[in-house]
Amino acid sequence: MDEIKLLLGVDCYNELLNDHKILQGLTGASSDTVQKCMYIASEKLLQNKFCTAKQIEPCHRISIGCTNLDGLLNGGIPVNGINELYGCSGVGKTQLSLQLALQIQLPVHLGGKGQEVVYICTEDVFPSKRLIQLACAFRSKYNVDICFEDRIYIEHIPNFVRLQKCLNLLPQFLLGKKVGLIIIDSIAGLFRSDTENPNYVARSQEFTVLGKVLIELQEKCKFGILTINQVVDNLSSGLTEPSLGLSWANNVTSRFGLSRNNTDPIRRFDVIFSPDLAPSFSNLLITPEGILDA
């Protein structure tokens, strides 16, 4: 590339992928020479940009710590785009989030990544008592001396504006830390409206901004993203659906559902959509020691 700069000059070099006639006019070089330079430059600029489908490396994943669930997810929750877990109130979404927040802290040889977690609450107070209970169970189960509670950074955010400010400060906060997962519990809590006629256009724009910011942070800081979502009843179809509609769903890379039948202790975990996972499901149990295969 340095030879091309010397031949054509910096200004021409910046025009290398434009019309070769422009380069001819700027350099006085022959058409063959300009086309050869453009070919060399394009080969250099596009080096390692394209690959075959077989060459695409699988994305990293965060283990849940359940054999069946991890098998269903090819190793765990993908560190690729925005993950969403939705379900009705009390079904166990926060329980699964807490288990992920502990599992990722385990050393690699125990199925973890030795990383920390940022946990953003938007509705209820962070369930610290349940976290302490699970942390004690994890220390006993894996025979480790990890202070799990000190490696989860918690923030309470009441609205979208505050979340924006929090995310803007996040890169600086993460300096010197090994954060591998961001959990937002829940995404629906940020966008609930007390007015009878909410501005859906403005809300849709906020979804787009939030999705863009999260993906940019993920690319920069290399952490997984898990958003928790509530459900609503669709009066037209009679079905229960994730909150926030299609405008939010367009920002979600992988969507998972958690459900149960009435008082049945067994929960069902569904893969709704994901780039590299087929729609499927697995059953699980929530116990005092954490989430187990059913």
TrEMBL record:
* Stored InterPro entries: DNA_recomb/repair_RecA-like, P-loop_NTPase, Rad51_C, RecA_ATP-bd, XRCC3-like_C
Q: Which Pfam families does this one have?
A: Rad51
Instruction: Report the principal subcellular site.
Output: nucleus
GO molecular function terms noted in the UniProt entry: ATP binding; ATP-dependent DNA damage sensor activity; four-way junction DNA binding
UniProt keyword terms in alphabetical order? ATP-binding, DNA damage, DNA repair, Nucleotide-binding, Nucleus
What PANTHER family does the annotation carry? DNA REPAIR PROTEIN XRCC3 (PTHR46487)
Q: Under what name is this protein listed? A: Uncharacterized protein
Species the sequence originates in: Dendroctonus ponderosae (Mountain pine beetle)
